[in-house]
Amino acid sequence: MTSYKDAGVDIAAGERAVELMKSRVARARRPEVVDDVSGFAGLFDASALTRYKRPLLATSTDGVGTKVDLARRLGVYDTVGHDLVGMVIDDLAVCGAEPLFMTDYIACGKVVPERVADIVGGIADACALAGCALVGGETAEHPGLLDADEFDLAGAGTGVVEADDVLGPDRVRPGDIVLAMASSGIHSNGYSLVRRVLATTDLTLDSQPTDLTRPLGEELLTPTRIYAQDCLALTRSGGVRAFAHITGGGLTANLARSLPPTVDAVLNRASWEVPPLFRVLQAHGDIPRPDMDATFNLGVGMAAIVGPDKAAEALRTLAARGVPAWHLGEITPGTGTATLT
Hints:
By secondary structure, the chain is of the alpha+beta class. 34% of the residues lie in helices and 24% in strands. The strands form three sheets. Strands 8-10-7-11-9-12 form a six-stranded mixed sheet. It has a four-stranded mixed sheet with strand order 3-6-4-5, covered by helices on one side. It has a two-stranded antiparallel sheet with strand order 1-2. Strand 1 and strand 2 form a beta hairpin. The protein is globular. This is Phosphoribosylformylglycinamidine cyclo-ligase. Its EC number is 6.3.3.1.
């Protein structure tokens, strides 16, 4: 006789994981969430959108990439849950959307209830920071496809924005100012290159080069800064033309996505000091500058394009919210490119 557990799927472990995560998930709620007793779906009261004249729903989906491998190796799981929210919800913020709710998906070789609860707990805590509800998710056990300690996670989020208030390239014009919002670290892009450096140099997760104040592994697992509420605060103050979430592709490639074909963004490389973690990786890995620029955020996690008369106020708003920010560059007539000079 062969049971499902013999095949590698432990239903009881999954149920235990659900019980462990319940209290933390409960903190990631909004008033519009309606409980579905069956648990098969998340419910959200759409009548809350009647305050909009023409509400547009915005949706985004993403994962954490190979950063999960470092989390596995270090046995730290809540920070990658935080990263997932940053990757998904901050994409919504780019168009000016208010985040409403999110769902998650975790695939693992073996359900370890405490590990799953840590991952989902991190997602829930970050959802609370972002102002959105965690309305559901799925944990799948894939024995034979993933080793017992391997896992991956992904998520999807939904937000809403007034049709007349959608931000984007059509609002950007010459003379606008580009502001940078500091990243908290590497966030969740470029970890395949990080892992390559670890595999081919003397750096290890336990290393602590002189430029760092803690072991490299801890630096690499620093969770993604979540900008959603900061971006909403800027849009409420007026003058925001567009945002750019600095993810895969680096600063210039992502900022170019928020430009019309009639302007350029000219960015001043001397306006900030690249954080030590990036310099350590570049030096030890002998990574050329173009590869650094095209792979990592280099200390800039989100960029805002604002009218010149609103730049000072925007910087004051971000400072009051505890977000390091600075004047990064200007918008000039051009062909839709962003350059670091």
